[in-house]
Amino acid sequence: MRVLIIGGGFGGLFCARRLGGTDVDVTLLDRAAGHLFQPLLYQCATGTLSLGQISRPLREEFARHRNVTTLLGEAIDIHPQSRQLTARRPDETTFTLDYDVLVVAAGMQQSYFGKEHFAQWAPGMKTLDDALHIRQRVFTAFEIAETLPPGPERDGWLTFAVAGGGPTGVELAGQIREMATRTLAHEFHSIEPKDARVLLFDGGERVLKAFAPELGEKATKSLQKLGVELHMGVHVTDVGREGVTISPKAGGPDEQYTARTVLWTAGVEAVPFARHIAKVLGAESDRSGRIAVEKDLSVAGYPEIFVIGDLAGRDNLPGVAENAMQGGLHVASCIRRELAGKPRRPFRYRDLGSAAYIARRQALLQVGPIKVAGFFGWLAWGFVHIAFLTGVRNRFSTVTTWMTTIARESRSHRAFMLGATGLPDQHYTWTVWDALTPAPSEAPVDRDDG
């Protein structure tokens, strides 16, 4: 049996792991060739953890499983009648893969709700590139502010806007504010990093709507104590070079906020391939692109095709890592049972709780009736997340780094890079105004004006 898994996230990883060593040929196709622990991306973006501590090459992960092949490529087309899939290499050429069972674990991408031009000014948080991009923008903002005289322009660079009050938005806002008041507090001469403003916008009445109200209230108090400015009940209706425009849900005039760094965590949607496969298979999907699946997570009319993780549209399954992990293990179990001549079982999701990190010694953990906040929530958050990290090496390394941050307020992974002036694909600057710079054949411009 040939099993083709699309995506090396939690769902694809756990499915391939469970099938390792069985009498099945497994191919794991991923556009990045590595597994990423997305829940800790913001720790990488704000300099606490390195890339290697939240990611691992898939080839290394499956080196001991001789029946698992990992390939670099992006799924772009499917031919269900012939059970073939077309993938694209990074050089734009394509290749074809055959399958008997297809597992779609491609995940979701950042959604700008139809306003894709927001992405130019407000990067999301879904990939390692996103984390590095945000790290570059955040730390560069402080550096640019250091070169400016006091006034509105400097204030704009010291203002950070975060759209979305879910776990990622709360975590980013808390980390930026903590970084400004602690890590960078004594490293600049012309500016006071602690004066940096962090604005958090969300359309709901409170942050962390998926958590119990009492935990959401504690999160609100923790953020306010840090100095994060909360703006609830509003929609971000425009994002540009200078900042954001906000529209109150209750009505009233729009408000504009000058912020040269805007980060977007307000929504997710299916990746293009997921929408394509739903169209080809004639499967129902919701507005976000989640594909309707049967009780065993297969697509109606195509028992050989499974959809797991964030893309599985059934029973209001949450878009969290635990759902993807359990879905991957379930599909692997279905395959193993069929090999043994046994019927499939329906998928049952078990809620293992939710966690959110706000700042040093401030986190939330909710597991059924158990609700923990503050310092003990922080400890619980750390060990829960570390327990799910891929590979023992990553766990040990991350534990060491994390324990170090308990003893001292350090962020040792703050390095960021700006591109070369003369290379068109590596701009020194990162705004649309690059289009106004001279072509590489022209004389270089002296950039000592900041």
Characterize this entry briefly:
The protein has 450 residues and is an alpha/beta fold. 30% of the residues lie in helices and 25% in strands.
Features:
alpha/beta; FAD/NAD(P)-binding domain; 6-stranded mixed β-sheet; 4-stranded parallel β-sheet; 11 helices; 25 strands; 30% helix; disordered C terminus; NADH dehydrogenase (quinone) (non-electrogenic) activity; membrane; transmembrane helix; FAD/NAD-binding_dom; transmembrane
How is this structure best described in words?
The protein has helices at 10-19, 41-45, 58-61, 128-146, 152-157, 167-183, 213-226, 272-281, 321-339, 374-387, 392-407, and strands spanning 2-6, 25-30, 34-36, 55-57, 68-72, 74-79, 84-88, 94-98, 101-104, 108-110, 159-163, 197-202, 228-232, 234-239, 243-248, 255-258, 261-264, 268-270, 291-292, 298-299, 302-307, 312-313, 354-359, 362-367, 370-373. It is of the alpha/beta class and 450 residues long. A six-stranded mixed beta sheet has the order 5-2-1-9-21-20, covered by helices on one side. Strand 23 (354-359) and strand 24 form a beta hairpin. Helix 1 runs parallel beside helix 9 (321-339) and helix 10 (374-387) packs antiparallel against helix 11. Its EC number is 1.6.5.9. It is an enzyme of class 1 (oxidoreductase). It catalyses: a quinone + NADH + H(+) = a quinol + NAD(+).
